[in-house]
Amino acid sequence: MSSVYALLFIVATIVLVIGLTRKIVQYAKTPAPLKIPTTPAPVTQTGVVFRLFREVVLFESLFKSTKWTWIFSWLFHMGLFLVLLRHVRYFIDPVWLPIQLIQPFGKYAAFAMVAGLAGLLVRRIFVDRVRYISAPSDYLWLLILLTIGMSGAMMTFVIHTDVVAVKQFFTGFWTLSGGELPMDPILLIHLTLVAVLMILLPFSKLLHIPGVFFSPTRNQVDNPRERRHLVEWARKFEES
Amino acid sequence: MAGAEFETPELSEHIEVPELVEGTMEHITCFVAKPEHQTDLGFPGEKVENWKEVAIDKMGDLLSRYRSFQVFMDACVKCGSCTDKCHYFLGTQDPKNMPVGRQDLLRKVYRRYFTFAGKYFPKLVGAVDLSEEIIDDWYSYFHQCSQCRRCSVFCPYGIDTAEISMAAREILDSIGVGQKYCNEIIGKVHKIGNNLGLPGPAILDTLEGLEEDVYEEDEVAVKYPLDVKGADILLVTPSADFFAEPHVDGLIGYGKVFHEAGVSWTLSTKASEAGNFGMFIGSYENMRRVSLRIREAALELGVKRIVFGECGHAWRIAYSFLNTLAGPFDFLDPDYPVPQHICEFTLNEIEKGTLEFDKSENDDMSITFHDSCNVARASRMGDTPGGQFEIPRKVIKAVVNNYHDMEWDTIHERTFCCGGGGGLLTDDLMEVRVKGAKPRMSAFKNVMEEKGVTHLAAICAICKSQFTKVLPYYGMDMFQIVSVHQLVSNAIVLNRKTPPEEAPGYGEDDDE
Ligand code: SF4
Ligand code: SF4
């Protein structure tokens, strides 16, 4: 059984890395022929970095838009972020100091994550506009993430798993020394769904993760009068 | 007329998010372009036999050429925060007029043909085959988007439905299903030089008429020159300025400002149109062709600067795209931005102290300013972000005594579209236009009631035409919409009695 999971995670990692890289390469290679930043837009590259930072860390546009959605998704994303950081300790030994320091926060961040996701799910079900635009996969993602979050929290707060064994199993990945995964149903559900998430990410709306960095309305410098912007396919017109 | 009878929505004090009512605007389809209007622009004259393949191919082509389109198709998480941001949704309750609802009309086809999930699990991700009904939906609803970009302000990924509407319209054009209004107009620009199809002599006639009018009123010979070689400034303005109220009052204003500033300027028959409907149909090629006329006119006339008159989408194209499409403009004077907006020009002169105003001339009005979408969310003026909000307001405040802004969440980058932009300014879409104007009309009505505002000033030809038509539907008067430079024109004191061209020592004092 452990080797099945080992294989699953190897596949998941490969699919995630290759899939995401392909998408990022595609985005990077696709030209943006016209300057289309949504204004008022920064007029310098540094300004653009700040703008993206505010978008990615604070969800600025969402904040302007709908406070409830902002609260729920910010809780979810920040919770997830802390939880992920906390999980780093299952992959390295010795554990870096910042990761050690984050542990207590990371533990409770699981609640923020679950609360945020629950809020988003309720919104999706009860707000008619959001319900209208939702496909089955939109609910499915929330359910997958909720289950991951809840099973994780269960293992931390209710039925403890043998984390030492889990750590051995995952560090065994790098060192090829192997290790036995505890056959704990909650852990197995948790890990299965994480693997599913990794495999599906490059084929789903989770592409908003790289997407936000490539969105021309957010990442372009507003300087078209100062500098001529011309892409390859448009240059061809000039030659003919 | 497509729509027979419809009810004008009731204005509400606040922006109320309505419940969804599916299909309220399904019956609205604008006139389809005639074959000759299609072929003029390089599109098939009629719906092609193999439209399905052609449409999918075109989609693939656009996905590979426009990063915006590719990223926007993938990145939407269906968070719903754009859903209540579109004035067309707010005014019609039709869920396909929610920005994401509109995008999904295209996205569900994208998913089916271009993504793994959509190919193998279409039901799961809401992917569907391209069909006749979808084409109809595209035609209806992508012509109910004024490409105002309000949705893009509020989307966490900056997804801009305008980009998607442009792509959709280009796909429709490529299979031979174009919109009459836009395509006919683009044809006129290519052939005659402006959207209204005014020939050179007609423009000359109008300008001479204006000179006479101004002389009669002010006893000063303000010139409205056409095709004058060697002038310093080429003014490019929407052709509506030659034609109708209140546009033409704006043109009179520009002339007076140039006169007082002591600069030589000219209009051009060849570039007698600032508007560029190529953008509305998403066609880079057509947009480029229209833009090139301005370059040619500037070269032929040997001007040093280009200034644009009051037109919203024209300014977007001028500011954001002109350098790309028709540049480089290294033959112009590098001391000035290329191109410059008339409001930038006027404010600059005001700050230099060359212009004198008698603000009391505008005391019969109390003004509010309507930020036009393409200026507010797709361009800039001046050197700093947001200059496009401040500069027109500064100009207005310099010439009027009574000014009040509308509610903060309906101005600046949150401004509401007039309801007629993006190629919708056509009678066959009147129902869409009137309903879509509701949020803007509400904010205007509020500021009328609360602050005693009487007039709405705008710097966009489409906004002005649209308001002229739509204000009466809401029980207001069509003359409540004014040009910003009309206000300037009213207040300006003409101290310079001779036109600059005839003044001695002319040309020495215009370097800053
Ligand atoms: S661009 Fe404007 S009109 Fe089009 S969907 Fe967005 S808000 Fe609506
Ligand atoms: S705001 Fe953006 S991500 Fe959210 S539903 Fe609208 S388009 Fe999609």
From TrEMBL, chain A:
InterPro entries registered for this protein in UniProt: Heme-iron_electron_transfer (IPR051936), NarG-like_domain (IPR023234), NarG-like_sf (IPR036197)
All copies of domain NarG-like, residue ranges: 66-209
Pfam families: Nitrate_red_gam
GO annotation, biological process: anaerobic electron transport chain
Any single GO CC term annotated in Swiss-Prot or TrEMBL for this entry: plasma membrane
Protein topology in the membrane: Multi-pass membrane protein
Transmembrane feature ranges: 6-25, 68-88, 108-127, 139-166, 186-203
Subcellular location: Cell membrane
Keyword Ribosomal protein: no
Keyword hit for Amino-acid biosynthesis: no
Keywords, in A-Z order: Cell membrane, Electron transport, Membrane, Oxidoreductase, Transmembrane, Transmembrane helix, Transport
GO molecular-function terms, A-Z: electron transfer activity; heme binding; nitrate reductase activity
Listed name of the protein: Nitrate reductase
Organism: Candidatus Thiodiazotropha endoloripes
Automatic annotation (TrEMBL), chain B:
All copies of domain 4Fe-4S ferredoxin-type, residue ranges: 67-96
TM annotation in the entry: none
Keywords associated with the record: 4Fe-4S, Electron transport, Iron, Iron-sulfur, Metal-binding, Transport
Electron transport listed as a keyword: yes
PROSITE patterns xrefs: 4FE4S_FER_1, 4FE4S_FER_2
GO molecular function, one term: oxidoreductase activity
NCBIfam families documented for this protein: DsrK (NF045796)
Protein name: Reductase
